[in-house]
Amino acid sequence: MEAIDPLSDKLSSYLETSQVKKVRRAYRFAEKGHQGQLRQSGEEYITHPLAVAHILADMHMDHESIVAALLHDVIEDTDFTKSQLSWRFGRTVAILVDGVSKLSEIEFSSKAEQQAENFQKMTLAMARDIRVVLVKLADRLHNMRTLGVLNNDKRRRIARETLDIYAPIAQRLGMNDMRVEFEDLGFAALYPLRHRRITEALKATRGPRTELVAEIKGMFEERLYAHHIATTVTGREKHLWSIYQKMKTKHRSFQDITDVFAFRIVVNSVDDCYRVLGIIHNLYKPISGDFKDYIAIPKSNGYQSLHTVLVGMHGVPIEVQIRTREMDDLANYGIASHWLYKSGLEHAEGNHTRANRWVKGLLEMQEQAGDSLEFIEHVKTDLFPDEVYVFTPDGVIVELPAGATPVDFAYAVHTQVGDTCVACEINGQLSPLSQNLESGERVRIITAPGAQPNPAWLNFVRSAKARSAIRHFLKNQQHEESVELGKRLLDHALTGVGSSYKKIRKSQIKHLLEETDATTFESVLQQIGLGNRVAYAVANVLIPEGKRKPVATASLDSAILVDNADGMVTSYARCCHPIPGDPILGHLSPGRGLVVHRDSCKNLSDIRGNAEKCMTLSWSPTVRGEFPVELKLEIISDRGIIATLAARISDQDATIDQISVNERDAQTSVVDLVIGARDRIHLANIMRRIRSLKAVQTVQRVKN
By Cβ atoms counted within 10 A, which residue in 219, 500, 578, 699 is the most buried? Predict the structure, then answer.
């Protein structure tokens, strides 16, 4: 009997004879390709692709997926090429195999980067055909089942990668059976002692529990039979990784977690699901707040079921899931149920659409991410969430991760809505953009043309899409601003050698790129703007000493204009808090760009005379915004004085950013304030209003 025969028998139960023949042909091709190759266990290598094909056959996957499973290591481990596979087995199979193949040709700087790059390639292949990820998951599952032969370090690394990436992907695609096996095999490999202890503890408690489980199951079956409902009732046991995670995160004992009885009731129709719910709620008292209807609002991976928790005999909690047979298959096989129900069952089709929508979202994130590690950070965020479900003003349901805010909602609606979001209404009430959303809330986003994402949003957004879109915008903005600042700094430096930015010729730029090993002139400007290159050094390369014209001294002292309050590459020194109207100087800080100081700031004393490091600046007449200013007040301690002080500042249309009060003695206190002022005139008006208070003895602006 050939090794392929058991697989052929399994496939003949649902595939056509011609398709089974193609699978047998692929097996012989793979067997020939892997001839002489052994696994680390000593078995012939072909046993691995065959086992992967069996896993997919159990899910009733189509013949192309099975063929791809048998051939998935052929491109990487044998002399056969993608074009040869395409010629023999068709273009679709070749694309599937190529998608699953690892990136062995590229050398990576770290294991983390290799993992991220592999995942990125898999994402691109998934976008073409979601079956790529199903073959990859089956491949990983068999590798996890045979981890025992590997050394400790390799075993732990593969287990960690499986728990971090592959188990969450299986969950995201609704493949519960595979996720549970990934987690328990990963747990056993990563924490063998803890796994053994929990297994032993579970065996010890199983005996006394068996009778109680049988009794509760019997009562359910008896009551449902009396109402003529055809059903299958099974007792569910919590899997080991789930028990361990709950013990760790909720700081609860093993006894507390296993002292819950879990049952699954599978019926024929959705109508029966709700009837069963009513019947068991009459049998045992439900715990309020612990009911979830995932049939009316499915989870983002397509999962549907009714969840309820009852108080059984002796106060024992009973968790119950109620679902139809199709929902049970969807819960266990997830995206694979699309092939299980070839007839196009509505839920299976919906699951496939959801999976494709998720992959499309991954591609969008991939385009915006700076590198593969940043991409994988976003993906991990997206893989783990529990969901909240909120409504648009038109009543459309939007799925978001738990803890999501209106900013996450705005980006879920559209990137443009997120980028221009300025305020929001939750259930008709104006609310902060950082407020956590709860299921059932109706959210309306208020946008404004010209508005931009705020870097502070990164501190509270939860969804991967929002995080990656904000970072992408800020990176672009920083790039544009640093190039613009670089132009101004270079123009200033060129003035000192008798030229200007507008007079630079192509031949000079070409010479500069050769000298600096830079790829583009724009990248040189960006480096100048970020403070990573000195403008004077670049000017010296563009115009060597022998080719310079004499320069009038006045032009050397011309100032660079500062024209924005909240730029990405222009920042304001906290030591002296400059504001429009103050005489100012600037210095370039590597990575930060231009830092603006007051002319009198003591921190510039070391570089004040160095034209390369310290430059004259002046305020643009059009500069707008609020600038922080530090004030020190001496006041007579009096009830309500701080409130009166705040009211005076507010009357002048200024904001208080920080306030601290220190008692000097029984009668007087020192108040340190940081307020937002538009310019020196605005500040003078604020200080005048503060001085007019009787309790205020002195007001002074802090210089350093």
Answer: 578
User: Quick one: average pLDDT of 221-227?
Assistant: 90
| Order of strands, sheet of 421-426, starting from the edge strand that comes earlier in the sequence | 429-431, 421-426, 443-447
User: Per-residue confidence at 624, pLDDT binned at 50, 70, 90?
Assistant: confident
CA distance 421 to 406: 9
**What is the amino acid identity at position 67?**
V
How many residues does this entry show for the chain? 704
According to CATH, the topology of domain 194-340 is Beta Polymerase; domain 2 (3.30.460)
For 411-446, the pLDDT digits (tens) are 999 989 999 998 899 988 888 898 998 877 889 999
Handedness of CA 148, 151, 154, 155 (dihedral sign): positive
Using CB atoms within 10 Å of the CB of residue 574, give its burial: 0 to 12 exposed, 13 to 18 middle, 19+ buried.
exposed
5-189: CATH number: 1.10.3210.10
- In angstroms, the CA 88 to CA 97 distance is 13
CA 198 – CA 193 distance, rounded (Å): 9
The answer to whether residue 62 is catalytic is no
Nearest of 619, 598, 593, 623 to residue 608 by alpha carbon: 598
What fold characterizes domain 385-462?
Ubiquitin-like (UB roll) (3.10.20)
Given the residues 44, 62, 76, 679, select the one marked as catalytic. Answer: 76
351 CB burial (10 A radius; 0-12, 13-18, 19+) = buried
Which H or E run contains 672? strand 668-677
Which token pair is 37? 């190759």
- Strand 387-391 and strand 397-401: the pairing is antiparallel
List CB contacts of 472: < 8 A, sequence separation 6 or more: 368, 369
Rounded distance between C-alpha atoms, residue 390 and residue 395, angstroms: 9
In this predicted structure, the answer to whether residue 355 has a pLDDT above a threshold of 50 is yes
Catalytic position from the list 44, 62, 77, 221: 77
At residue 103, the pLDDT reads 37
* pLDDT score recorded for residue 555: 45
pTM of the model: 0.58
Nearest in space to 370 (alpha carbons), one of 583, 120, 587: 120
Which amino acid belongs to residue 150? L
Q: Are 558 and 467 in contact (CB under 8 A)?
A: no
Pairing of β 292-293 and β 306-311: antiparallel
Neighbours of 137 (CB within 10 A): 25
Residue 541 burial class via C-beta count within 10 angstroms: exposed 0-12, middle 13-18, buried 19 and up: middle
Tokens found for residue 228: 């003529």
Residue found under tokens 């007040």? 633
**627-701 CATH pick, 3.30.70.260, 3.55.30.10, 3.40.50.2020, 2.60.120.260:** 3.30.70.260
Average pLDDT, the chain: 81
Contact by Cβ (8 Å): 593, 482: yes
Task: For residues 378 and 5, give the distance between their C-alpha atoms in angstroms, rounded to a whole number.
Answer: 44
The C-alpha atoms of residue 432 and residue 425 are separated, in whole angstroms, by 8
* pLDDT of amino acid 110: 53
In eight-state DSSP terms, residue 624 is: -
Angstrom distances, CA of residue 614 to CA of 27, 557, 603: 72, 12, 12
With CA atoms as reference, report the closest residue to 291 among 305, 301, 275.
305
Active site residue 626: no
pLDDT at 378 over 70: no
Residue carrying structure tokens 């976008």: 127
